[in-house]
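Handoff note, outgoing to incoming analyst
You'll be picking up this chain. Sequence as last confirmed:
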Amino acid sequence: MTEHIEKRVKEKLKDYPKRLDHVLGVAETAVKLAKIYQVDEEKAMIAGLYHDFAKHDSLEDKMNMMDLRWIKAYADYPVIYHAIAASNMLEHEFRVHDHDILNAIRYHVWGRKEMSVLEKIIFVSDSCEPSRHYKDKDYIFDLATKDLDLAVEYCMLASIKDVKQKGLIPSDEQIETYQYYQEVNRGKSK
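Most recent structure output, in case you need it:
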């Protein structure tokens, strides 16, 4: 099944070479981290490949792939729509019903409280895959190989700072999730 999913992703993103490189990089990085944390590598590959599947779809197309409850919940933060739509697309097109994979895709943008190990892997891999131009991507990957929760917190803070630099306001959910991981990491040396 993974081969069919990869083929579908490559076909859909062929006109977006940078996005395709990013998606393949996230999948590759996720598999590396999955090996370290003894998570199913195929699940990591699938979630990595599909996490940005709907990124370039129109707002209308994304909304057509979502329940009204999701549309309403994130009406002020439509940046999340691509993740929810991609998760739903994978479930419908490939009949993937594994909640861990679907949630890893759905929550990869700013995470959530009590993420599974796979969810954390996809969340962090999105920030440290090889094609990213972040100055700290190598630090993030190195941190993730040692303590995934510290890497999650680091990426969340970076995301919040990025949102604020753009003149936007982070969502309450984003702030609460960051505070949750601060608490998880309390007492750890950073």
